[in-house]
């Protein structure tokens, strides 16, 4: 098959979250399975500054945005981990030559609708003009959700494009690309599509809703999340639309790239280790304590690497912090997010300097060191479409504490008595989103940590888990084949 992956962000060129990791890695496994893959993304300032070898193509063309023609310039490069996967960059500096991808600290860019209308339309025209023989366009999130709509409306009679099938993956339903009705005229789509069955949502245009309606297949990034988004609690207002199109909805968990996230080959940690030779983990703990000016005690070290936002359970942690600090433990937090949480967490630091290290930043090396050096990992998310850190933690023998939601529910098995006895447990789970439940889950983990033999067995079982991309890639391939038939 010939597959085009289309995404607003891809590692290492541009990243705000896990979406970039997925689209930077999945194509490698599709290629490994024998398929031809190309990738499309915007030509951001971060791409210009990345230092990668980029070639300007001599193909330029104009596309209409409302009543105005806008010129598209194309660049291309080869994927940094492949010799064959071509990445095409869509350039228009007035849209993409900016410091951030989607907005500033004051909010989203006011022209985001126009920016990604342009990007979606340009991708289709680029495929046509470069004469790329594409079978499947795999779209990611609302920024690309117009592509399935365009293919089945404006380009439905185009013989070069009409046979292309589309798959839309929802990485987080909370972000939908909802804009004022007036933006509809910029799309070039007929106003008859502005209705409650297609693109209209509460008198706005909703890009993601339209993509769900028009895509041949819709996937989410975990099986559990595919079930959850049909409910009022997790459906973000689109549960009715999703229920209506449930026959084409599938959940496929994201995979882990174990070439980057595996303690036996991780160059970013102080001591490599494995399930057969675990001694290096204790050395990683001492190194992390030393780096963060924490006393080198034997007390359990808890880690949290997260966007500091309510979705991630930071609010719950703040509520229990004073009580938690009465326990014999240490806690390391790494992340950035909402300013109010930055300030709240910083206020605890002087009070608990011997036990708490709050790092308001993102640092990839420190993230690896926390995964390797911590004993327990906190991920009590209100909702989590997939989550990756809990899967990284398993491989590093860092026992996750998670809420049973989305990908967390799909990947972590609770360490209750029965699961501990039959050696299936991999972590600790909480059902409700309450501070008291989080504290109880932590206390359960601390109690087991004191018992050397059961804790060792739990850690070994966690490290045996395999969430590599091969299984997920095969599921995507089967879906792609099914719609081509």
Automatic annotation (TrEMBL):
Enzyme class: transferase
GO molecular function terms listed in the Swiss-Prot or TrEMBL record: alpha-1,4-glucan glucosyltransferase (ADP-glucose donor) activity; alpha-1,4-glucan glucosyltransferase (UDP-glucose donor) activity
GO biological process, one term: glycogen biosynthetic process
Reactions the enzyme catalyzes: [(1->4)-alpha-D-glucosyl](n) + ADP-alpha-D-glucose = [(1->4)-alpha-D-glucosyl](n+1) + ADP + H(+)
Start and end residues of each Starch synthase catalytic domain: 2-243
UniProt entry tagged with the keyword Coiled coil: no
Pathway terms, separated by semicolons: Glycan biosynthesis; glycogen biosynthesis
EC id: 2.4.1.21
Keyword Mitochondrion: no
Keyword vocabulary terms for this entry: Glycogen biosynthesis, Glycosyltransferase, Transferase
Superkingdom to which the source organism belongs: Bacteria
Domain Glycosyl transferase family, chain residue ranges per copy: 297-453
Annotated InterPro entries: Glyco_trans_1, GS/SS, Starch_synth_cat_dom
Residues at which ADP-alpha-D-glucose binds: 15
Entry similarity comment: Belongs to the glycosyltransferase 1 family. Bacterial/plant glycogen synthase subfamily.
Record function comment: Synthesizes alpha-1,4-glucan chains using ADP-glucose.
Protein name: Glycogen synthase
Organism: Candidatus Scalindua japonica
């Amino acid at each position: 098959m010939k597959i085009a992956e289309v995404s607003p962000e891809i590692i290492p060129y541009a990243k705000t979250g896990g979406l970039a990791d997925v689209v930077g890695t999945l194509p490698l496994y599709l290629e490994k399975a024998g398929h031809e893959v190309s990738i499309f993304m915007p030509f951001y300032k971060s791409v210009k500054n990345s230092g990668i070898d980029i070639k300007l193509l001599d193909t330029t063309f104009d596309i209409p945005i409302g009543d105005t023609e806008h010129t598209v310039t194309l660049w291309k490069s080869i994927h940094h981990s492949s010799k064959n996967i071509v990445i095409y960059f869509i350039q228009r500096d007035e849209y993409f030559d900016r410091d951030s991808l989607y907005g500033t600290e004051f909010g989203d860019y006011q022209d985001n609708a126009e920016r990604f209308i342009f990007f979606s339309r340009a991708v289709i025209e680029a495929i046509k003009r470069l004469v790329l023989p594409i079978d499947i366009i795999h779209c990611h999130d609302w920024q690309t959700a117009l592509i399935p709509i365009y293919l089945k409306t404006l380009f439905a009679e185009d013989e070069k494009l009409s046979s292309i099938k589309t798959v839309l993956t929802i990485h987080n339903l909370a972000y939908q690309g909802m804009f004022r009705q007036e933006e509809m005229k910029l799309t070039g789509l007929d106003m008859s599509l502005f209705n409650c069955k297609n693109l209209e949502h509460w008198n706005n245009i909703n890009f993601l809703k339209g993509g769900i309606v028009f895509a041949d297949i819709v996937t989410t990034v975990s099986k559990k999340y595919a079930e959850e988004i049909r409910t009022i609690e997790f459906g973000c207002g689109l549960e009715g639309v999703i229920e209506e199109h449930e026959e084409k909805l599938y959940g496929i968990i994201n995979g882990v790239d174990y070439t980057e996230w595996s303690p036996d080959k991780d160059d970013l940690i102080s001591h490599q280790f494995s399930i057969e030779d675990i001694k290096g983990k204790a050395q990683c703990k001492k190194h992390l304590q030393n780096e963060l000016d924490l006393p080198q005690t034997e007390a359990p070290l808890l880690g949290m690497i997260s966007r500091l936002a309510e979705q991630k359970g930071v609010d719950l942690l703040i509520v229990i912090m004073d009580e938690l600090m009465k326990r014999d433990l240490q806690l390391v937090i790494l992340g950035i997010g909402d300013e109010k949480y930055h300030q709240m967490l910083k206020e605890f630091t002087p009070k608990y300097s011997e036990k708490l290290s709050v790092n308001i930043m993102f640092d990839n090396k420190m993230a690896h060191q926390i995964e390797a050096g911590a004993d327990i990992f906190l991920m009590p998310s209100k909702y989590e479409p997939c989550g990756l850190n809990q899967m990284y933690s398993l491989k590093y023998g860092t026992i996750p504490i998670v809420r049973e939601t989305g990908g967390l529910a799909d990947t972590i098995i609770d360490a209750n008595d029965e699961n501990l006895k039959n050696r299936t447990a991999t972590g600790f789970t909480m059902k409700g989103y309450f501070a008291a439940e989080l504290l109880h889950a932590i206390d359960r983990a601390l109690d087991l940590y004191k018992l050397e033999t059961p804790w060792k067995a739990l850690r070994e079982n966690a490290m045996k888990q395999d969430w590599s991309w091969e299984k997920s890639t095969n599921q995507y391939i089967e879906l792609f084949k099914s719609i081509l038939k």
